[in-house]
Amino acid sequence: MGEVVLPFEPVTTPAFTLQPARGGAEPDCGFEPELVAVGPDGEEPWGTLGLTSAEGTVVARFWVAPERRGHRIAAAMLRAVCPRLFDSGTGRVETRAPVSDRAAIRAAMRAGFRPEGVLRAGAPDGTDALVLGLVPDYGGGPAPRVLPDLPGGELTDGAVALRPLLPDDFEAHLRHRTSPDVYAGAALPLPPSVGEVAEMCEWRAALEWLQGRSALMVIDDGDGYRGTIGLYHVQRMTGSGMIGYDLGAEARGRGYATRAVALVCRWAFGEVGLERVWAGTDVHNAASQAVLRRSGFRLEGLQRGGLPALDGSRRDMLLWARLSVDARD
C-alpha cells in the first residue's frame, strides 16, 4: 500500500480542524499520521488519521488522545475525511479494528462503516481484525444496526435484569457453562473449553451483537450471574430469531427463565422489529417446554433428528414459536 495524496484543504468541524500532519513532535499514536485533529485553541492534537491506499481502496487508521476519548472524536474524523476521499476518486474506505476493541468498532460504525468479516491477524497489532467498509452508495449516517443496544444498558422487570455478557463475567460464565447439568441441555451436550469461554466473554459476544448475528445476555437477579439467555440466528429478511436460555441449578424454580423470555420477546418484537421468535427443545426437556408455554409460545411440530447426540446419532426436537401478533405477556 502507498500513502494517500491528500486532495483537500483542512476540514473544519464544529469541534476541531482536521489538517495535514506537519511532522515533528506528533503524538505517539503507533503509526505515521497523515491528518491531525486540532481543537480551536491549537492545543495538543485531539486525534490522528493514517491513510494508505491500494487499488482504489483507502485503509484508515485512527487514534484519539486518551483525555478526548468518549466524545466520538474518531467517528467525527472519519465522517470529515471520507467524503473528500470519495470526491477525489476513491471507491472504498476500510478500517481494520482488533476484534476486542469495541470502542474502535463502534466508532467506525457511527461513521457509517459496515462490518464485513473477521480477518485473521489483520489488525495492526497482529491480532484478528474486524474489517469494516464504507462506499459512497451507503449514504450518510451511522451503519444500520440489526440488533440495537439495550435501552439503558439492560432489560429488567424489577425482579431480574438482562445485560450483555462482559469480560468480567469470565469466571462465572466458565463455572456455569462447564456445569454438567447446564451443558447437558445444550444443542451439543459438551462443555466449552476455557479458551472458548474466554473468547466469548472478551470479544465474541460483543462482536456478534454489533454484527447483528446474536445477542447474548446474562440473567442477573440482583445477586449476580444466574444464567444466560440469547437471541440467535437473527434474520432481518424473514423477521425471525431463535431464543435460547439456561439457568444454574440454584436459580431454578423461581420463574427467572419465564421472566427472561418475556423480556427478550418484548425487546425482539419492539426494538429489534422481529415478527417471529422460535425455540427448539429436546423432546424430553419438560422444564424448558413449560417455560415456553408460560411465555406464550405455541408448539408447532416435531423436527426429526433436529439435534446431535454424542454417539453420532440424532435426537428429535420440538419446535415452538411466538409471533408478534400473539397475545402480549
Describe this structure in words.
- A hairpin with a 4-residue loop joins strand 10 (155-156) and strand 11.
- The longest helix has 17 residues, at 194-210.
- The N and C termini lie far apart (56 Å).
- Strands 1, 2, 3, 4, 5, 6, 7, 8 and 9 form a nine-stranded mixed beta sheet that branches. Strands 10-11-12-13-14-15-17-16 form an eight-stranded mixed beta sheet, sandwiched between helices.
- The relative contact order is 0.08.
- The protein is elongated, with a radius of gyration of 23 Å.
- The protein has 329 residues and is α+β, with helices and mostly antiparallel strands.
- The mean pLDDT is 92.
- The protein has helices at 73-87, 102-110, 170-177, 180-183, 194-210, 256-272, 286-294, and strands spanning 2-3, 11-12, 17-20, 35-38, 47-54, 57-64, 92-98, 114-119, 129-134, 155-156, 161-164, 215-220, 225-235, 240-247, 276-282, 298-308, 314-323.
- The protein has seven helices and 17 strands.
- The protein folds into two domains: 2-138, Gcn5-related N-acetyltransferase (GNAT) (Aminopeptidase, 3-Layer(aba) Sandwich), CATH 3.40.630.30; 151-323, Gcn5-related N-acetyltransferase (GNAT) (Aminopeptidase).
